[in-house]
Amino acid sequence: MRLNKTILFLFTAAVIISLMAGCGAHGKEAHMNNTELRSVQQASIVGEKAISENVQSATFAGGCFWGVEAVFRQTEGVVATAVGYTGGSKENPTYREVCTGRTGHAEAVRVYYDPDKTNYAKLVDKFFASHNPTTLNRQGPDVGTQYRSAIFYHDESQKEIAKKTKEALQDSAKFERPIVTEIKPAGPFYMAEDYHQRYFEKNKGAYCPHPVE
């Protein structure tokens, strides 16, 4: 077990060092397809789960990305996560810039998952269950367009699943108000600063309106 942890640590460190040497610090665009997971783009590997080329990507925004990431890191089948900014117009935004609400970006989480252990529909269900999708540009005390509810789909299959899930939830009358979750194509995803990654693991007892254990 200790050997496995050592190997995993060395692997992750090597990835991060190589990426930083090639593209600098925070705010760099993260492009990943199913055959490039080994690079991980500074994403945080969950536990000691093996990295497979079969891993797929999903991107969600549902308020403060600290809590959204923590929820998905507790989800079966998720092998890595990364928090960042997407959906706006400014390239390589900083956290402070996003907080002004003028970049158009949302705080988002890129989720890497093993399709042999979970599927996109289950992740979408988890997303809707983990926040209030009826509050426009707000989650709890966090207010602003950067805290909007959004699903950024990576292909047409994800788009259809997201739309059907949203429609089914709305028809179920589970929510008294209309669901305002945006469903848009995934665009450039800019990694957030390092101190935001795995924030709940680094800061025990941190506040967040999401259901984090």
Chain-wise SSE layout:
Elements: H1 2-23, E1 44-45, E2 56-62, H2 65-73, E3 78-86, H3 95-99, E4 106-113, H4 120-129, E5 138-139, E6 142-143, E7 149-153, H5 156-171, E8 182-185, E9 190-191, H6 199-202
Parallel strand pairs: 7-8
Antiparallel strand pairs: 1-3, 2-4, 2-7, 3-4, 3-9, 5-6
| Total count of strands | 9
Q: Helicity level, as a percent range?
A: 25-40%
**Shape label:** globular
How does the helix and strand content classify structurally?
alpha+beta
Query: What is the CATH architecture descriptor?
Result: 2-Layer Sandwich
**pLDDT averaged residue by residue:** 81
Element-by-element helix/strand order: HEEHEHEHEEEHEEH
Distance between the termini: 25 Å
Give the C-level CATH assignment: Alpha Beta
Tell me the CATH topology.
Answer: Peptide Methionine Sulfoxide Reductase, Chain A
Largest sheet: 7 strands, mixed
> How would you name the CATH homologous superfamily?
Peptide methionine sulphoxide reductase MsrA
Radius of gyration: 17 Å
Strand percent estimate: 15-25%
Number of helices: 6
Unreliable residue runs: 1-39
Walk me through the structure.
The protein is about 30% helix and about 20% strand. Strand 7 (about 150-155), helix 5 (about 155-170) and strand 8 (about 180-185) form a beta-alpha-beta unit. It has one domain: Peptide Methionine Sulfoxide Reductase, Chain A (2-Layer Sandwich). Strands 1, 2, 3, 4, 7, 8 and 9 form a seven-stranded mixed beta sheet that branches. The chain is an alpha+beta fold.
Any key phrases for this structure?
213 residues, alpha+beta, Peptide Methionine Sulfoxide Reductase, Chain A, 7-stranded mixed β-sheet, two-stranded antiparallel ribbon, 19% strand, globular
